[in-house]
């Protein structure tokens, strides 16, 4: 086997540049393996985040040849031949090298009103598989924040971070909205403070999701429908009243003992 | 109270580690009205807990009504080969169902039974289907649920902050810790009335491991250095099914859920070999033919358990023997086959992340082909010796929960008992810390001398103009521990390891760091290495003393369990104020005596 060359962005908030690293190719390696070999030899101070190395924790998100990818799940032999360019996620401020400041996401998480379930009956709640599956899809999220990175609303407009939660949090709101036990109503919040309306459904987020969550189709569009219905449409307003009742009834049902 | 010259924070309860145990402890302490801070060396939500796949064990009886805490207790003790702190095993079995149900109040969504209860899955060593799960991503569900709860309660979380040392007060109580921010390398001190260690495991000291870079035994080591005792450190679980190819992912975990859901192990001759490895202890309850074993999956009354679902230590040893006998797969493992046993649809629904993992990393479609797997260093049963009720250590003000604590699992942990351990004893740590604070005798001052010593040691590698690369030391340590204190051990190799570890200590004191302090992974590794060495020394010393084979400790020169060694745990300690590289003392302490009424449960099972 021949050599591989990685072109890695090195630097910090004050600036930086690309550095090339050429190493012998290893069998079956992913990009993170090559980064680790660079750290162990030429550049022990090369900063990157990683934890599980199995696509389960979402720590090692970067941009590989300009595309948001997990380094641990990107095999070198699936990339086009030639130099592989590795850069930090563009949407977030640089800390150092491939590490970015993702605190925007943690700040948005703090603003999510918590699940509000009915009291738990003895022996636990009753919920059915078909009812939990919708929210389960969104709970697969590993918080790699690549959907946030690729979303042009904040990628190209820093000022929107003040009033735009981003795809990761739209699936979180959708998850709670569709959660069988939840009795909280976050629709006004999502519309007014979380900027759901800014999303124009380009599906960039869905394309980069490593968990293949259908962010746009299954979360954002249904969420937009619910929010818009609730706010503008008098018929839907009535529907909302009824659905709202249905939602509470579902939660009530959860506390009923089995027949 | 402190006059710390560094950035300083004060808390009632300080929790080091943000995995399942740390977050559960935080919720408990917070609910009791205490000021709580959590420190994690990664980002919140990335802890190793997310790697847990199969589920969490709790005798809820949703699938088999016959299940109850007594059976779970018995299974845990048997799995642990009776080296367990029985009281921890008892509390764990009794409290796990409430802890699992509680997660649903905080938003967790487990897979369901047909009648809407939490579905439970079969796993090795558990008599009944007992593991609450979400497909094969249960750990993620646990961490996300606890993380979201902690965030909604407004808890302070210090992310990417690496703790170096625990700090005492003048009376020897724990008073806080000293740490540094990974982002800029600046030091920060924390004072607290109580400190809870929830730092997880040590697996990064072995070459083939399922653990991330974080599993460096920081909490084990800091507890030892602070005056606490570590027990059962020789008991390391090698999970039977880690990936073996490609080499870059060797060690990556393949969930036991594959076997729980019908997967079987075969050697290169296609033989389902586990029938040849049923120990006497498990013979009465294990199937002796493939037909009988296959009936069991659908109805546990129709046959006895398949031997693939023996406890992990038994299965790992069997695989090791098959490979050594020349019946292994091309890359030095054996085959785990679910493709020929379950439909593609079932495999993708029940094991989605395994499907994804093999497809993306190895180019193997597990719905069509068998997986190549072999043992991987996964979990340490040993840890800080704690009181079962409160998780208090020997050092006043210091508590420990989760993998960093020892005793609960004895010599071998059953799959699924880890996630439940985190929530049962995470909660108890929060309670224990709260009660300790309420009792009033907490730290009154903060030893700045200890702070300065820890900082000087952390900065020393920058002073050296020439010295070793920490990555070289880590690689050599992993190779050495894998070959000398790995899955099968023998006196000469352990002795060699003990000598080698002293040399590693010297090498660590000669590290030179390239670059600055801001987000420098080389420097971070340099600060991890003392922990890795202290823990490895305890493991090697325990392994030398335990002249028998039991659970996660197998001696080629003493292949059988011995009644005499079954009566002791080995405890390791370091005098307070000693350096991390000073001589550790290792002593036998009697295993806790199981009271008669609980002993009866164990006897019934024999």
Topology:
The complex is a heterodimer of chains A (259) and B (606).
Chain A: E1 3-12, E2 15-24, H1 31-40, E3 61-64, E4 67-70, E5 84-87, E6 94-96, E7 99-100, H2 103-110, H3 129-139, H4 146-150, H5 152-155, H6 167-177, H7 187-192, H8 204-208, H9 215-232, H10 234-255
Parallel strand pairs in A: 1-5
Antiparallel strand pairs in A: 1-2, 3-4, 3-5, 6-7
Chain B: E1 7-16, H1 20-31, E2 36-39, E3 56-57, H2 69-79, H3 86-105, E4 120-121, E5 131-132, H4 138-152, E6 156-158, E7 161-168, E8 174-181, E9 187-197, H5 218-226, E10 230-231, E11 236-243, H6 257-260, E12 264-266, H7 280-283, H8 290-296, H9 312-324, E13 334-337, H10 344-350, H11 352-362, E14 371-380, E15 383-385, E16 398-400, E17 405-406, H12 417-439, H13 448-463, H14 470-484, H15 491-508, H16 521-545, E18 568-573, E19 585-590, H17 596-605
Parallel strand pairs in B: 1-2, 1-9, 2-6, 9-16, 15-17
Antiparallel strand pairs in B: 3-5, 4-5, 7-8, 8-9, 10-15, 10-18, 11-14, 12-13, 13-14, 18-19
Share of residues in strands of chain A: 5-15%
Strand content of chain B is 15-25%
CATH topology of the largest domain in chain A: Fumarate Reductase Iron-sulfur Protein, Chain B, domain 2
CA gyration radius of chain B, whole angstroms: 23 Å
Helices and strands of chain A, in order, run as EEHEEEEEHHHHHHHHH
Give the CATH superfamily of the largest domain in chain B. Answer: FAD/NAD(P)-binding domain
What's the structural domain tally of chain A? 2
N/C terminus separation of chain B: 57 Å
Number of strands of chain A: 7
CATH topology description of the largest domain in chain B: FAD/NAD(P)-binding domain
Can you give the helix content of chain A as a percent range? 25-40%
């Amino acid at each position: 086997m021949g050599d591989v060359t990685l072109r890695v962005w090195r630097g910090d908030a004050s600036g930086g540049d690309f550095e090339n690293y050429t190493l012998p190719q290893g069998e079956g390696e992913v990009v993170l393996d090559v980064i680790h070999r660079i750290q162990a030899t030429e550049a022990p101070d090369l900063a990157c985040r990683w934890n599980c190395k199995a696509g389960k924790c979402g720590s090692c998100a970067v941009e590989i040849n300009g595309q948001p990818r997990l380094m641990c799940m990107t095999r070198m032999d699936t990339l086009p031949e030639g130099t592989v360019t590795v850069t930090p996620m563009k949407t977030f401020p640089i800390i150092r090298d491939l590490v970015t400041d993702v605190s925007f996401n943690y700040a948005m998480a703090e603003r999510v009103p918590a699940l509000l379930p009915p009291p738990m009956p003895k022996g636990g709640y009753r919920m059915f598989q078909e009812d939990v599956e919708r929210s389960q899809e969104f709970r697969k999220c590993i918080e790699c924040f690549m959907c946030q990175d690729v979303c042009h609303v904040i990628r190209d407009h820093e000022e929107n971070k003040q009033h735009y939660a981003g795809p990761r949090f739209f699936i979180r709101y959708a998850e709670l909205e569709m959660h069988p036990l939840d009795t909280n109503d976050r629709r006004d919040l999502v519309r007014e403070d979380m900027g759901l309306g800014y999303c124009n459904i380009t599906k960039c987020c869905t394309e980069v999701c490593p968990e293949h969550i259908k962010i746009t189709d299954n979360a954002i569009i249904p969420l937009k429908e619910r929010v818009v219905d609730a706010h503008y449409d008098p018929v839907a307003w009535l529907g909302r009243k009824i659905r709202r009742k249905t939602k509470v009834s579902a939660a009530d049902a959860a506390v009923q003992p089995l027949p | 109270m402190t006059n710390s010259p560094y950035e300083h924070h004060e808390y009632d309860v300080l929790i080091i580690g943000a995995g399942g145990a740390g977050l559960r402890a935080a919720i408990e302490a917070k609910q009791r009205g205490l000021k709580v801070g959590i420190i994690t060396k990664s980002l919140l939500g990335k802890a190793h807990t997310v790697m847990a796949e199969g589920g969490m064990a709790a005798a809820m009886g949703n699938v088999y009504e016959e299940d109850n805490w007594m059976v779970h207790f018995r299974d845990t003790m048997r799995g642990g080969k009776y080296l367990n702190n029985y009281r921890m095993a008892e509390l764990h079995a009794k409290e796990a169902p409430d802890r699992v149900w509680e997660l649903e109040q905080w938003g967790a969504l487990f897979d369901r039974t047909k009648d809407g209860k939490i579905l439970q899955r079969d796993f090795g060593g558990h008599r009944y289907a007992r593991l609450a799960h979400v497909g094969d991503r249960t750990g993620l569900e646990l961490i996300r649920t606890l993380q979201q709860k902690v965030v909604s309660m407004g808890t302070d979380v210090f992310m990417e902050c690496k703790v170096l040392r625990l700090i005492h007060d003048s009376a020897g109580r724990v008073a806080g810790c000293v740490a540094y921010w990974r982002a800029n390398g600046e030091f920060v001190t924390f004072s607290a009335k109580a400190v809870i260690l929830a730092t997880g495991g040590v697996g990064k000291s072995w070459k083939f491991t399922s653990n991330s870079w974080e599993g460096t035994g920081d909490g084990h080591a800091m507890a030892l250095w602070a005056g606490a005792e570590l027990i059962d450190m020789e008991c390391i679980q090698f999970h039977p099914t880690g990936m073996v190819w490609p080499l870059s992912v060797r060690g990556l975990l393949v969930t036991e859920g594959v076997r729980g859901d019908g997967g079987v192990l075969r050697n290169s001759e296609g033989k389902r070999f586990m029938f040849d490895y049923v120990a006497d202890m498990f013979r009465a309850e294990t199937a002796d033919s493939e037909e009988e074993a296959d009936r069991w999956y659908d109805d546990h009354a129709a046959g006895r358990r398949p031997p693939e679902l023996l406890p992990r230590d038994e299965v790992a040893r069997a695989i090791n023997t098959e490979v050594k006998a020349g019946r292994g797969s091309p890359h030095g493992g054996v085959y785990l086959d679910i493709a020929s046993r379950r439909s593609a649809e079932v495999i993708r629904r029940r094991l989605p992340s395994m499907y994804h993992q093999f497809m993306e990393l190895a180019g193997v479609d597990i719905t069509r082909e068998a997986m190549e797997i072999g043992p991987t260093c996964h979990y340490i049963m040993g840890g800080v010796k704690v009181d079962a009720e409160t998780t208090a250590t020997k050092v006043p003000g210091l508590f420990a929960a989760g993998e960093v604590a020892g005793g609960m699992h004895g010599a071998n942990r059953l799959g699924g008992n880890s996630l439940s351990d985190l929530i049962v004893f995470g909660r108890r740590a929060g309670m224990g810390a709260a009660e300790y604070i309420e009792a009033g005798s907490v730290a009154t001052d903060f030893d700045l001398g200890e702070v300065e010593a820890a900082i000087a040691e952390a900065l020393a590698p920058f002073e050296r103009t020439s010295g070793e690369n920490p990555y070289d030391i880590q690689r050599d340590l992993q190779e050495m521990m894998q070959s000398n204190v790995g899955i099968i051990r023998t006196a000469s190799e352990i002795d060699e390891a003990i000598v080698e570890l002293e040399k590693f200590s010297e090498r660590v004191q000669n590290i030179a760091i390239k670059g600055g302090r801001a987000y420098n992974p080389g420097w971070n590794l340099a600060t991890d290495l003392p922990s890795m060495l202290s823990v490895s020394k305890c493991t090697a010393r325990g392994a030398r003393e335990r002249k028998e084979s039991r659970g996660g400790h197998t001696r080629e020169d003493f292949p059988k369990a011995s009644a005499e060694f079954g009566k002791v745990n080995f405890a390791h300690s370091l005098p307070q104020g000693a350096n991390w590289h000073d001589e550790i003392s290792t002593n036998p302490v009697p295993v806790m005596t199981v009271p008669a009424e609980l002993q009866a449960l164990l006897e019934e099972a024999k």
